[in-house]
């Protein structure tokens, strides 16, 4: 081994250990001067010998990598969210439901960190990728920024293959310093730690993320059974031993009393912690018990997130204005004197409908109590009637659309008022916003404010206009805040959206009552938009989970000639109209078996192989264990092949996989 290569490895190990001691153990053994000296030496050696520099070198912590846009990463195991509970009764009900299922659980209580979730994937001990939660199935690749987080190891012990999940956050002291620096530069401050962390991790330039000094707490191992782990608490200890930063407040409790004591304790400690928390996560400790309790379509049944009571503040209700949604629904909205609630400045809050305002007895000019429901959505609790002066103005529901002046109507049995004008401009804006959102066509760069701007400027008046936006490229670049690169990225995102599977388009069309899950159900069943459009109301009504009202809405949508014309236009523009998701099939050599793919297969990428395995009822895993049935090996397979041989696991080489692949239907 060359001297330079040997010294680079030595310095890398020294600096990685120093980072771990400083940022995870908070017990540094190197002085700042020593650390800087070793870092300068490593930077010099890597510059002189780039062939020996690791992609996960400690020198990458300072950032500098710049990307054009965020790529997508599919989570091998979905990142499900947790159901929220808001009071002691709901926590007790959660415990009782588990006990009625025949279990006697212990629980792990963990602090609910106020940041954003991340997934971190290691292969052969090296950090491979970092990704956001996204929609739970597909997240954004933030690897270039994740590498700047000094508490997250770039290399872990034992050259382990592992995926861990946790929270990316910003500490309170870091936020205060960052806002002080921004004030000196006449930049607006970040309003809270969560917003600052989210904005920092989504920077295209990693040097900006590095300056923001983000941090992590690791709390979840998606596949603990692969490592012989039996409990959630043991998985936390396991990840801690590997060098990850695991919160020391996590506690194993025996029963519901222990949960309530933990919540009470940290409700009191909350203001004094160096980071923001918004609740406590409660998980069944035994992993076999978790598996038996299972999942709903959205959440695990074995865990809940208790949200601390929302902070309440008082402000003045200066006006009530009305907005029009994409279905024509009219919503009254409170206009408030700006007030900070849980770190965010609140100026508006929804009042839902006429009955809600009347029930709350709200008057314009009232002093009202405001809180954030679940610490997220601004909510008007009610007026402080004792503060009234007599100058307050009674609420009056409007009779005509605030945008097109059409007479409003109430639908049978509903409390909401609707604008029935199909050409109301406000409906178009809301429909466009919905079409572009993440769960629909997921067009990065076409957010609510930009769509409103483009609508008012005449660039986008209908959904097809989105796909003609390229003809306005030069005009858009002349607008303030829209440079050539940002417009190029936007146009690329629009073009990429044409490849989306049918369920994305179906949800984006905004058929009343069709959520993202229903869209998947319909797309899987009918395969093409044309086939769905031809179904009778009776056919649709007979589908499980559809029902009469939704069947009527779907049939009415496709019975409308304007909607049929829109469907044809989108097809002409090149939008995919077919379901592209997986259809589970059967194959004797794949179905019901667990696979690990390692090394390079010459004719097919690893992601494609794993997708095929899952489509045929198999399971793709990232690590070899006693539960692995087959390991598919290509060139440079490494330690996974060795471990498979040691465990006596069946091995398929490239030729074997090719023969199986060619035998598939």
Notes on the structure:
With 665 residues, the protein is an alpha+beta fold. The chain contains 25 helices and 24 strands. β16 (367-373) and β17 form a beta hairpin. The longest helix is centred in the first third of the chain and has 22 residues, at 3-24. It is globular. The model has no long low-confidence stretch (mean pLDDT 88).
Strands, helices and their partners?
Elements: H1 3-24, H2 32-48, E1 72-74, E2 84-85, H3 88-100, E3 107-113, E4 116-123, E5 126-132, E6 138-140, H4 143-146, E7 162-169, H5 172-184, H6 193-201, H7 206-211, E8 215-220, H8 232-241, E9 251-253, H9 256-269, E10 277-284, H10 287-293, E11 303-307, E12 312-324, E13 330-341, E14 344-350, H11 354-360, E15 363-364, E16 367-373, E17 377-383, E18 393-394, E19 408-410, E20 417-419, H12 425-436, H13 448-456, H14 463-466, H15 473-477, H16 484-497, H17 502-508, H18 516-526, H19 529-533, H20 537-541, H21 547-558, H22 561-572, E21 594-598, H23 606-615, E22 619-621, E23 630-633, H24 639-647, E24 650-652, H25 654-663
Parallel strand pairs: 2-11, 21-22, 21-23, 23-24
Antiparallel strand pairs: 1-6, 3-9, 3-10, 4-5, 4-7, 7-8, 10-11, 12-13, 12-16, 13-14, 15-18, 16-17, 19-20
């Amino acid at each position: 081994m060359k001297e330079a290569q040997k010294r680079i490895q030595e310095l890398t190990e020294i600096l990685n250990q120093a980072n771990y001691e400083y940022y995870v153990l908070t017990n540094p053994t190197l002085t700042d001067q020593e650390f800087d000296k070793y870092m300068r030496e490593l930077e010099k050696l890597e510059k002189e010998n780039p062939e020996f520099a690791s992609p996960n070198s400690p020198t990458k912590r300072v950032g500098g990598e710049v990307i054009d846009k965020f790529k997508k990463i599919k989570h091998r195991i979905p990142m499900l969210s947790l159901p929220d509970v808001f009071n002691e009764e709901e926590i007790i009900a959660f415990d009782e439901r588990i006990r009625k299922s025949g279990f006697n659980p212990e629980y792990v209580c963990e602090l609910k960190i106020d940041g954003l979730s991340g997934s971190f994937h290691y292969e052969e001990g090296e950090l491979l990728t970092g990704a956001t939660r996204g929609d739970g199935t597909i997240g954004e690749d933030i690897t270039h920024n994740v590498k700047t987080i000094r508490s997250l190891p770039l290399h872990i012990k034992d050259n382990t293959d592992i995926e861990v999940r946790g929270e990316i956050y910003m500490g309170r002291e870091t936020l205060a310093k960052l806002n002080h620096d921004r004030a000196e530069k006449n930049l607006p401050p970040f309003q809270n730690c969560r917003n600052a962390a989210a904005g920092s991790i989504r920077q295209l330039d990693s040097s900006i993320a590095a300056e923001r000094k983000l941090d992590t707490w690791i709390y979840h191992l998606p596949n603990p059974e692969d490592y012989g782990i039996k409990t959630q608490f043991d998985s936390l200890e396991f990840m801690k031993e590997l060098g990850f930063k695991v919160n020391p407040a996590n506690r194993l409790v025996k029963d519901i009393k222990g949960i309530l004591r933990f919540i009470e304790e940290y409700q009191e400690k909350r203001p004094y912690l160096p980071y923001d928390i918004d609740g406590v996560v409660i998980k069944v400790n035994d992993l076999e018990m978790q598996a038996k309790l299972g999942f709903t379509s959205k959440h695990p049944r074995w865990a809940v997130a208790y949200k601390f009571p929302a902070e309440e503040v008082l402000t003045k209700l200066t006006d009530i204005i009305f907005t029009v949604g994409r279905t024509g629904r009219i919503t009254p909205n409170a206009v408030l004197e700006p007030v900070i609630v849980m770190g965010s400045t609140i100026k508006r809050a929804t009042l839902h409908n006429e009955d809600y305002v009347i029930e709350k007895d709200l008057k314009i000019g009232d002093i009202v109590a405001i809180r954030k429901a679940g610490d997220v959505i601004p909510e008007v609790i009610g007026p402080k009637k004792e503060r009234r002066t007599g100058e307050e103005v009674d609420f009056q529901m409007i009779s005509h659309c605030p945008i097109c002046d059409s007479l409003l109507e109430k639908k049978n049995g509903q409390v909401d008022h609707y604008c029935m004008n199909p050409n109301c401009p406000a409906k178009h804006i809301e429909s466009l916003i919905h079409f572009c959102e993440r769960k629909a066509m997921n067009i990065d760069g076409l957010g609510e404010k930009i769509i409103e701007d483009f609508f008012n400027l005449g660039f986008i008046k209908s959904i097809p206009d989105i796909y003609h936006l390229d003809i306005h490229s030069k005009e858009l670049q002349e607008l303030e805040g829209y440079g050539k690169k940002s417009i190029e990225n936007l146009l690329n995102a629009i073009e990429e959206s044409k490849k989306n599977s049918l369920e994305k388009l179906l949800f984006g069309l905004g058929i009343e009552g069709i959520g993202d899950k229903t869209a998947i159900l319909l797309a899987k069943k009918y395969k093409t938009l044309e086939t769905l459009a031809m179904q009778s109301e009776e056919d649709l009504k007979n589908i499980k989970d559809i029902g009469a009202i939704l069947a009527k809405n779907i049939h009415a949508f496709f019975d409308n000639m304007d909607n049929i014309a829109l469907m044809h236009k989108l097809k002409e523009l090149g939008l995919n109209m077919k379901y592209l998701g997986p259809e589970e099939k059967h194959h004797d050599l794949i179905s019901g078996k667990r696979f690990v793919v390692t090394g390079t297969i010459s004719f097919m990428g690893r992601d494609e192989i794993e997708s095929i395995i899952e489509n045929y009822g198999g399971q793709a895993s990232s690590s070899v264990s006693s539960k692995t049935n087959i390991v598919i090996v290509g060139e440079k397979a490494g330690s996974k092949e060795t471990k498979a041989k040691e465990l006596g696991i069946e091995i398929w080489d490239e030729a074997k996989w090719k023969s199986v692949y060619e035998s598939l239907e």
